Amino acid sequence: MKFMKLGTRPDTFYTEEATRSLASEIPSDLEIRINGVTYLLHKFALLPRCGLLQRLYSDTPESTTVTMELHDIPGGEEAFELCAKYCYGITISLSAHNFVPAFCAAKFLRMTESVDQGSFVLKLEAFFNSCILEGWKDSITALQTTVKLNEWSENLGIIRRCIDSIVDKILTPPAKVRWSYTYTRPGFNKHEHSVPKDWWTEDISDLDIDLFRCIITALKSTYLLPPQLIGEALHVYASRWLPDTTKIRPSESSEPGEVVSDKESQRRVLETIVSMIPVDRGSVSIGFLLRLLNTANYLATSPATKAELIRRSSVQLEEATLSDILFPSHLGQQVYDIDSVAAVLESFLVVWRRVSQEASVEESQVVASIRRIGKLIHSYLQVVAKDPDMPVSKFEHPDLSKADRKRLCRTLDCQKLSPEVRAHAVKNERLPLRTVVQVLFFEQEIKGGGGGGGGSNSRMLSQELSFNGKQPAPPAMAAAAEDLSSKLQLKSSTPESSSIRSNKHERVKRPDSRKGKVEDERNILVRGEIEEEVEKGKEGSKLDRKKIMGSRSGSSTHGRDKGRDR
């Protein structure tokens, strides 16, 4: 950072209560009041160099001491004191940190060439052009100080010239960058590596969001930088100013007023960042988009911002990994935010259905796309299902059609369901009746062990088919239960079953693979018959247990005859 020193006299200003005075043998004859601070100065030092004070002095009546009030001077008392010290020849040090308030105050006091040759304004302009604008970090620092004097800085052209200087340096080829910059990426060493393309992103992330937006807008208007580089700048800025929602705990809190103020500022930052994301796909990663979406939920941003993030995320959902979509929930007790993932998935499916119908799109691409998403969501559900606070209703879709529910439930392997899931499935009114009966069938196989007890199976099934112990089972389901009990009783009374039970010890020693295969085929046959009859029962027809039993007996006899033939 560069400095400019003016003046040679030592600083003899001192404070007494709320008054700033200059140690001098000459009595003060000029009193200036600024925001509760009074300066006791001298007309001979300030009037020749300040056009504004000359005009104000001419408007006051003749008196020994003149009092002036300058409460609206830009930069306040600190900026005025710099100008006053310059008038006295006291040494002052100027840099990018205090240039803007000093320059605005000098302009306010009219310390120009028309009043004093070699004026303060002239020297400040020379320092601004030759030192501040020539430096990378000096330009950024000076631009940041314009926040408190935005209107003055805008009117005097300071903001525009700083932005032009910064943009010009960003567009410089990396090989020609000779100035100092901040780059703290892990593993990067300035002495061992060449200048990276995104060398400028960390330094401009220190700027206020409005100034940052001006720079990004100016860069995008040149069309000289790739969208991915703009996206990286947005990512760095978001990391600098937005909260890390993965580390936020409900118990952590600050003063209510402070929390509201911080969230309002962060909400404004996030909404501005989203509005600046380039339209090009891949300009930012899917992980970054999903993190922004999670942060938007935490900060309660506008619906338009959330909708835009959901849309952008759905376009790149194929690129997501499991860790990208496993972000925390900020509502309720559940660990993961599955509502946002569901919204992104739904948006993806809307586009996918439309694209899949277009003739120009290859079928292989459409199938590969949905398969990748399917595998991702499958892995996601395996993780979130382990959350003990995740309500079961989150996994059920109330708007699925009857055909979709059937197709979905055909993929279930009832033998692999836990007892808790089986108990829930029996009482779930949305599940297809076929699935419920299959669950009951395997439940009774487990309880009965394939043995006797057929007389009590009907009662057990009827109890399990009652919904929450209050509502009676639907007629079709009750009939299915009675029919299932008959089949189980029939199964347990077959000669094969009796033989297996009487020779259990011998069968362990000498396993018969053929019998096991026949038994599996028998189980499959029973389940198939149950499913067919359940479907008929759902359509209003009455289950005919005798018909099934007759069919079953015929099948069994036929099987035994075939066995004897063999």
UniProtKB/TrEMBL annotation:
Annotated Pfam families: NPH3
Region (Disordered): 466-566
All residue ranges annotated as the BTB domain in the record: 28-96
Top-level lineage group: Eukaryota
Chain intervals with Basic and acidic residues compositional bias: 503-524, 535-547
Keyword presence, Cell inner membrane: no
Keyword Magnesium included in the entry's annotation: no
Coiled coil feature spans: none
Pathway assigned to this chain's UniProt record: Protein modification; protein ubiquitination
Biased composition (Polar residues): 486-501
Keywords: Ubl conjugation pathway
Domain named NPH3: residues: 198-446
InterPro entries reported in the protein's UniProt record: BTB/POZ_dom, NPH3/RPT2-like, NPH3_dom, SKP1/BTB/POZ_sf
Membership in a protein family: Belongs to the NPH3 family.
Protein name: Phototropic-responsive NPH3 family protein
Organism of derivation: Linum tenue
